[in-house]
Amino acid sequence: MFEHLQNKLSEALHILKGHNTITEINIASSIKEIGRALVDADVNYEIVKDFIQKVKKKSIGKKVLTSLNPKQLITKIVYDELVSLMGEKNVEINFDKNPTIILICGLQGSGKTSFASKLAFFLKKKNKSPLLVAADIHRPAAIDQLKLIVEKVNIPVFYLKESKDVVEIVNQSILYAYKKEKNVIIIDTAGRLGIDEIMMEEITKINKYSKPNEILFVVDSMTGQDAINTAQSFSKKLNFNGIVITKLDGDSRGGVAITMSSVIKRPIKFISNGEKIEDLEIFHPDRIANRILGKGDVVSLVEKVQEQFDEKKTKKIYSKISKNRFSFNDLLEQIQQIKKIGNIKNIISMIPGIDKYFSFYGNQKDSFKKIEAIIHSMTPYERNNPKVLIDIKRKKRISKGSGILLNHVDLFIKQFYDMNKIMKKIHAHSEKKIIKDFIYQMINQRK
Question: Is 64 exposed, middle or buried (0-12, 13-18, 19+ CB in 10 A)?
Fold first, then answer.
C-alpha cells in the first residue's frame, strides 16, 4: 500500500537535495510535485490545496538547523501535516461494558464479513473472548462464509438459520454470550449495493436493540472517492464511531486512508491489508505517515514480531550475530519467521530503507522466493560459511542453479553482509539499553 504515493513524494522531495537553504524558488517546484503526488493518490483536490498551503507557509523563512538540510526539514513538515490530516492519533475501541458489543456495517462487497472475522481473531490474541454474530439475513452464504473463515482459529459463530428477524438474532446472541462467558460480541450485518431506506431501517433497528459500544463503518479503499462519499452519506443516517478501510493491499495510491478522517470527522480505527485472517492493523496516523514517506514503521513491525516471538531461537541468533557466525541457513530461518507475521509486501514497507535490498528483484512479493532460491542453490558448506563465496566459480554455479543473474547473486551476498552489520549494531545496543528505546530513537532520527 502507498507505493505509488511513496515514490512520487520521494521524487518531489529529491528536488531539494543538495540545497543548503530554503527559498521560494527551490521550494516551489518541490511543493508543486507534492501536490501532484497527492492528487495522483486520489486525495481530494481541495484538501491537497489546503495541505500544500500549510506546508509552504511553515517552510518559507524557516531557519534550517546545522544538523538538518532543507530536504529533511520539508520532510518533517510534510510528515506533521500528514499526521494531522489522518487524525493525529489512533482512537481505541471502547471496552467499558461486559460484554462489549461491536456493530459492523457498510455496503455489500466492502469486506465486512472478512473484517469481522479478522477483528475477532485480533481481539482473541489480545486475550479477549469474542463471539461472532451472523446477522446478515439477506445473503444466503453469509453464515457459511463467517464459519469458514474462523473455524481454524476456534472462534464461535452465533446464528439462527431459520430466523429472518435480526432483532431476535441479536437478542439471542447476547443471551448466548452471557451463558458462554464471551466478553466481546461482533455483529456482522447485511450490506446493500447502495444506502437505501431498507438498509438504514434494518441497521437502525439492530443499533437500537443491541446498544453497541462501537459502530464501525467498513469501506473499500479500491472505490476511491466513492468510499468517502458513501461514508459521508451513511454518517448522516447513523452515528458511527469509527472507520475501517479494507483492501489497502490492492490500492497502491492510498488516498482514501489519507483523506477519510478529515472529511468524515471520524477516526480510522483499523486497516485491512491482505487476505489472511491476521492481516489487520490498528490505524496509527504517525506510523502510516512514516510509511508514506518511506521511513518504515519499526514499532508496528516489532509488535507483529512479538506475536511470533520465540525466545530460545532469538537468543541463539543473537549469539551467532555477536560472534560473526550468522549464516545463510540462519537467514533462511529468519525469512520463514517473517512469513508467519503477515503480508510480505506490508512487512517490507515497515522496514526503513529495506526496499533497496529488493529493488533488483522487481516485484517485492516474489523477493523472498528469489532469495530462498539463491540460498537453496548453495551447498550445505557454503550456507554455513558465507566467506567462501568470494570464489567466482561458486557464485556462477549458484547463479545457474537458482536461475538468478550473476550480478544479482553478487549484490545479494553484499547485502547479506550489510544486513549482518546492521543486526550486529542492534544486538550490541540492545545489550546496553531496552530495545524499545532504541526503536523510538531510530524513528526520531529519521524524522
Answer: middle
Q: How many CA atoms lie within 13 A of 94 on its CB side?
A: 14
Give the contacts of 66 (CB within 8 A, at least 6 positions apart).
none
The CATH code that applies to domain 3-85 is: 1.20.120.140
* Distance separating alpha carbons of residues 250 and 311, to the nearest angstrom: 34
pLDDT tens across 117-163, in order?
999 999 998 999 999 999 988 887 888 888 999 988 899 999 988 88
CA distance 154 to 173: 17
Whole-number Å distance between alpha carbons of 161 and 338 = 40
Domain 300-446 has CATH 1.10.260.30: yes
What global pTM score does this model have? 0.70
**Long-range contacts of the stretch 51-57 (C-beta < 8 A, 24+):** 51/81, 51/85, 54/81, 55/31, 55/81, 56/27, 56/31
Chain-centre distance for alpha carbon 282 = 8
What Å distances lie between residue 342 and 278, 325, 416, CA to CA? 6, 28, 23
- Reduced to 3 states (helix: H, G, I; strand: E, B; else coil), residue 394 is helix
Domain residue extents for the chain: 3-85, 100-289, 300-446
For strands 130-135 and 100-106, give the pairing: unpaired
Superfamily classification of domain 100-289:
P-loop containing nucleotide triphosphate hydrolases (3.40.50.300)
Residue 427 · residue 321 · CB < 8 Å: yes
Q: Which three cell numbers stand for residue 146?
A: 463467517
